[in-house]
Amino acid sequence: MHRVPSVPTQSLLFFALLVSTRVLAAEPCKLSNSVPPAALAGQAVRADNWLSPGNIRFGLGQAPRFIHGVSVTPTASPPARPAATQRLDPDRLQLTDPADGRLRSLRFVLENRIDADGVLILRRGRVVLDYRRSGFDPTQPRLLLEATRPILVMQLAKAAAEGRVAREKAITRVLPELAGARDLGKLSLQRLLDGRTGLQWSDADITRWQQEAGWAQGGNGGVRAWLGARPSWPRTSDDSVSDLAGPEGELLLWAVEKAWKKPAPELLCDLQASIRSRSPAFWATDATGTPLADGLALSLSDFASLGQAFLDARNRPGRRSLAPAWFIDSVANPSDASDATPAGVRALGPDTGWQYRFAHPGRRGHRTAIVGAYGTSLYVDFDYGTVIAVFASHAERHSPLLMTSLRNFWEEAARPRVADSGQR
To answer: How big is the chain by its Cα radius of gyration, in Å?
Structure first.
């Protein structure tokens, strides 16, 4: 009888350690719960004022200090983006200042009209402008607020393309927890994707939503318990009312999680892998651990990488993993402007279209924009291969001066030019 040689215990231990190390290395992200620390006496920025106008610049970049959430850190670190040979010089580039119609430097407009904290412009994947206000860290995750919602729509569209959910289904079929809400039974998932549900939210609803979500103090059972307990869901007759922010975003996020059978932080991990993230991210939750519709926080560099992923998905065959081809083409092409366009988007100009919660400034060309709050935005010009990622802290959420300044900046900075070779 042949005897099998014994394997030394140390070798077995080493083999087990090697296998476990490889398994851990294969994990694309590390997720960790985040609980805001107790406020200390004398702190000027606290949980009850961190999103007030005077504190918004600090608060958006320091969300884990004030709200529950999940930190998502990629385990891989792709190389930094190379710099372009021709750079934009913010002091030499001139654009129209909508305040008085005069030509002013890009730096002036960024600092005095947009209140930009950081701007990253990519052309063909290379950095042409890296603008930073003093003290701004482009690797720090920052809350996108309502700019989260187009990303959720993209994820839901991808789920529909893979047969995970049907867009014609009623919301209550996707979210059976809300089956008792008869008004929702008349709404399809497609209307939720379009941002045209016609749901009406009173000022009291908005206040309660902010409390239950944890954006303001005073919540009780959490945001989804509040949604599930609503006695009625009033709607307008034509379903034309739309807004960039509001409680209906929670329905969108809930549907995305149902379709993918994953919580939002795990979906964020998948997104980080598809855009080759280099920095940590964060997803804010209510006190019960439920992710929030406006709770995604990305670094500026990863926000720009999201825009680059849109370019790659449309322009490179076989690189359509971010979203289905029909979706990328829909948001890249002009769409009809109408009264149903949210007021914040209409401020970009009367020729601005609105499709799947993405804006399309102008009636020509292939471009799209994610419009957030206070100037934070992501502009993608498919014709010029340009991405413009902006983090800003303007005093007003969507003032006409801010939005016109953004559009002038987008259109002027997106066009390639040979003369601009200065550095930041």
So the answer is: 23
